[in-house]
Design goal:
The complex is a heterodimer. By secondary structure, chain A is mostly helical. Chain A contains 13 helices and 4 strands. In chain A, the strands form 2 sheets. Chain A has a two-stranded antiparallel ribbon. In chain A, strands 3-4 form a two-stranded antiparallel sheet. In chain B, a hairpin with a 3-residue loop joins β1 and β2. Classes of the chains: A mainly alpha, B mainly alpha.
């Protein structure tokens, strides 16, 4: 593999980590607004307790991906940052407001009730994943066109289509599904809450499954390139996703939290990698491949620096998750 | 912290990479930059005011409870 290919794969791993970690934080926000029933306050507390220690750290993967893309594939970065300026800015506002609302609400000690910051927190949790997914639709559908180093497609191209909207809703449903299964694991010792989140996982899992078919249908109608990626080189991973989907739902249905968590996270990994492998070596089809990389000197320097950085980052994250996520009797399930 | 950031960013102008790339040459061609700038100013001023108020309220609360 060329240095560019290795770095592209590392960046995609980073995006995957962001999706399965921060995706669940976005989903947690959804369950915060949808907290209902006699245990609504407990549900909100469970979401806050699960997210509190890690949501900020989870953004390290987004930052790493942006900085890495900027360094290793500057022309790709320029194309995406220009063509998707609007959805990225909207998602960024969502991420900023969401973090601030979460922190402010924690300070005001009003986690249990509905407060203005709670509403902002919930709304921003919806906005960020939806707009990030509409941006993904523009990339995967091949709607971003660059000619002679300049953006030839418009500022609304690709991410304002019905396909992008459906993909945005699908991403939101998947985030909610993921969050509900993580919350099942974190509340294994509290049967009533476990059952609340099991029912939520079931509902969002079924919605995700139904939306997946709508995504495929709209892709077939509007974004054939995306469908070609999934059914071409990405087919083995796509088949794994199709097989894993029912398994994940079964694990939720039979209340097997650890298995459900792994299966739903795997579902997101399969979908993301089916797409990435399917469009390889393109980063932004139809024009930009991994050949649009920075000079080899930059790439080699990156390949030296990344392991050093990871040697610091990964043990720190391991410690963070160990301290805050291992204290519950999750292992006994 | 924010002031320190302002000093480095303002002090570097008109260069974005000192001596190599001018900020004007690096700027995006995307639309509505003025609008997004205004939106971010409003958001950050709002966040600054809110965090100051919350910190003051928190300090007052601790003084009253004597902790």
């Amino acid at each position: 593999m060329s240095p560019a290919a290795v770095i592209a794969a590392i960046l995609w791993l980073s995006l995957t980590a962001y999706a399965v970690l921060a995706g669940a934080d976005f989903g947690g926000g959804v369950w915060d607004i949808l907290a209902r029933g006699p245990r609504a306050a407990d549900q909100r507390r469970a979401v806050a307790a699960a997210m509190g220690p890690v949501w900020e750290a989870n953004h390290v993967w987004l930052v790493f991906m942006i900085a890495g893309l900027f360094t290793a594939f500057p022309t790709v970065f320029a194309a995406l940052a220009t063509a998707l300026y609007l959805p990225f800015t909207i998602a960024l506002v969502g991420i900023v407001l969401r973090g601030a609302a979460f922190a402010f609400r924690g300070h005001g000690r009003e986690v249990e009730t509905v407060s203005p910051w709670g509403v902002i927190f919930g709304a921003a949790s919806v906005v960020a994943p939806v707009f990030l997914a509409t941006a993904a639709a523009a990339v995967g559908g091949g709607f971003i066109v660059v000619r002679g180093g300049r953006l030839a497609s418009g500022f609304f191209a690709g991410w304002t289509t019905p396909f992008a909207l459906v993909l945005g809703l699908f991403a939101l449903a998947l985030c909610s599904y993921l969050a509900a299964t993580y919350l099942m694991v974190e509340n294994e010792d509290r049967p009533e809450l476990l059952d609340d989140f099991r029912r939520r996982a079931m509902a969002s899992g079924l919605v995700s499954g139904a939306l997946a078919f709508v995504v495929l249908l709209t892709a077939w109608l509007e974004a054939p390139r995306m469908l070609e990626s999934l059914t071409g080189r990405g087919l083995p991973l796509f088949i794994l996703a199709l097989l894993n989907g029912p398994l994940a739902l079964w694990a939720v249905w039979r209340a097997r939290p650890p298995l459900a968590r792994v299966a739903v996270a795997a579902q997101i990994v399969f979908v993301l990698w089916a797409w990435a492998v399917g469009q390889w070596p393109y980063l932004v089809p139809p024009g930009l491949t991994i050949a649009a990389a920075a000079p080899d000197g930059t790439l080699v320097a990156m390949l030296i620096v990344i392991p050093i950085g990871m040697a610091l980052l990964l043990p720190s994250l391991w410690l963070l998750f160990r301290v805050f996520k291992a204290q519950r009797p999750a292992a006994s399930g | 912290m924010e002031s320190g950031w302002f000093v480095t960013e303002f002090g570097r102008q008109p260069w974005i990479v000192y001596g190599i790339l001018r900020t004007s040459a690096a700027a995006t061609s995307a639309p509505a930059l003025g609008l997004t700038f205004a939106a971010f100013v409003v958001i950050y001023v709002g966040l600054a005011i809110t965090s100051a108020r919350l910190l003051l309220a928190s300090a007052r609360h601790n003084r009253e409870t004597g902790s």
